[in-house]
Amino acid sequence: MTLRDHLAELRVRIVRSVLAITIGVIIVMTFYDPILRVILRPYKELCKRRPDFGCDGTLVGIGPLDGFTTRISISLYGGLVIAFPVILWQVWRFVVPALHAKEKKYAIPFIASVLTLFVFGGFIAYWTLGYALEFLISWSGSEVGQIYQVSKYISLVGLMVAAYGVGFEFPVLLVFLQMVGVVKPSQLRKNWRYAVLVIFVIAAVITPSGDPISMLALAIPMSVFYLISILIGMLILRRRRKHGDGDDDDDPDDEALAGASA
Predict the structure, then answer these.
(1) What are the φ/ψ torsions at residue 194 (nearest 5 degrees)?
(2) How far is 66 from 140, CA to CA, in rounded Å?
(3) What is the pLDDT of residues 203-261, one digit of tens each?
């Protein structure tokens, strides 16, 4: 394809992605009230469980535009989540012409893995939200009442879902890098201690609430996913060697790992 053809193809994919996001925004805006109740549930349950915090589960709008901006924010966040499968498919359709036939067959597993891990990450973020709020409120002291601005609460929820969703895509990236030969399973295995340390540091940085419970809820699954990605890489390496298309300069340690995974 020429550069003009590539740009035309990119424009088509972007337009379709924007349309999918727009449809998702409209859907979320239509069901805004039920969605808002679900988002507020962890905070309401926390206030019932801890009456000493001095909160009643309600949020306040300080400015006249808070209600409008909150509705727009929730609709945009929800629209992106709903359109996420379409966006992934458009990205895949844009890059697939440059792939070999053997690589194209990974489209469905790739998209399914990304979606599953993103949803799982969002669920973990939602599950830990109440514990994160409890940790943060407890630091304010018993004499401090809790009145939250609705826009700030929604921003916290959105950032947590995004951080966990993106963080849980970590194994997909590692598997991809092993498939294209950038890293090898033996390299990941030898450096697993440093990798786990880096994972915990990253989790501490990207966790919006900053509490240890949320950080551990992100870092521990990422560490487990790191080990699983090594196992998947070993299986891929073993399969390639079985079909005679492995690299000649692979480490001997990789052969032992591939044999151990059989």
Answers:
(1) -65, -35
(2) 24
(3) 888 777 677 888 888 889 889 989 998 898 888 888 877 776 554 444 544 444 444 44
Contact (CB, 8 A) for 56 and 113:
no
What are the φ/ψ torsions at residue 238 (nearest 5 degrees)? -65, -40
Q: Which residue type occupies 63? A: G
- Mean pLDDT over 66-92 rounds to 87
Gyration radius from the chain CA atoms: 22
CA pair distance 207, 203, nearest whole angstrom: 6
Whether the Cβ atoms of residue 171 and residue 117 lie closer than 8 Å to each other:
yes
Residue 170 in tokens = 């970590």
- CA-CA distance, 222 to 208, in Å (whole number)? 17
* Helix H or strand E encompassing 191: none
pLDDT (average), residues 130-152: 80
Judge whether 216 and 167 are in contact, CB under 8 Å.
Answer: no
pTM of the model as a whole? 0.73
Residue 102 pLDDT grade (very low, low, confident, very high; cuts 50, 70, 90): low
Residues near 246 by beta carbon (within 8 Å), at least 6 away in sequence: 237, 240
Angle at 96 between CA 77 and CA 254, to 5 degrees: 95
- Select the more confidently predicted residue: 202 or 1: 202
3-class secondary structure, 133 = helix
Alpha-carbon distance of 193 to 256, in angstroms, equals: 20
Amino acid identity of 46? L
Contact 157, 196 (CB under 8 A): no
What is d(CA 173, CA 186) in angstroms, rounded to the nearest whole number?
Answer: 17
Strands 148-149 and 59-60, by their bridges, are parallel
